[in-house]
Amino acid sequence: MRLEWITSLRATRTFTPDDVSQDQMTAVLEAARWAGSARNRQPWRFAVVRDRALLRELSALGAYAGHLAGAPVAVLLAVDATLSTQDAEFDAGRAAQNLMLAAHMLGLGSCPVSFFPAGNAETATRLAGFREPWHVRTGISLGHPAPAAKGTPAIPQGRLPLGDLVIDLP
After folding, report:
1. Which residue in 58, 60, 145, 161 is a FRET match for 117, CA 20 to 30 A apart?
2. pLDDT in tens, 7-29
3. Nearest CA to 56 among 116, 127, 4?
4. In 9-21, which positions are buried (b, 16+ CB within 10 angstroms) versus exposed (e)?
5. Using CA atoms, how far apart are residues 56 and 51, in angstroms rounded to an integer?
């Protein structure tokens, strides 16, 4: 099993100015498209954003959205609100993870963002050009990772041991 593709995935918030090619975009969107979904509803649509001004506007839509301003491209995930919200949001998360893993396999960096509170999600939906029943609550920045900053990371690294996370039931 090739777990290193998963265990080496990190959120990338700083990018080089190099473009993400159309072939790379097609590959990551194909990976997202093939995510599983409840009843195969595929409750998502994707908006690809390359416009600098629009990326800056989106970067103001939440405390953790700032990295969108420096990304060469972002993908906005719209979810069909007429479906069970919990199922649709969960399935969109599966599509997002597929997209980010595919980006990582292609040497690209990515970082997810949630557009909350609700007013930010409404603005992101409008900026992306979606109409009812589609709602954008999630975006993903994509690009070629900038060199990592030197120094001690501000956020703890690694993961909890598996034994601390798993309960074996009889």
Report:
1. 145
2. 888 999 999 999 999 999 999 99
3. 127
4. beebbbbeeeebe
5. 9
Cβ atoms 108, 28 nearer than 8 A: yes
Question: Which residue ranges form the domains of the chain, and what is each CATH number?
Answer: 4-9+19-146 (3.40.109.10)
User: Among 49, 55, 44, which residue's Cα sits nearest to residue 78?
Assistant: 44
β-strand pairing of 73-80 with 109-114: unpaired
CA angle 87, 158, 114 (to 5 degrees): 35
Confidence of residue 168 (pLDDT cuts 50, 70, 90): very high
Tokens of 86: 């919990």
- Asked if residues 42 and 134 have their Cβ atoms less than 8 Å apart, the reply is no
**Residue 80: Cβ within 10 Å count:** 19
DSSP 128: H
Contact indicator for 119, 127 with CB cutoff of 8 Å = no
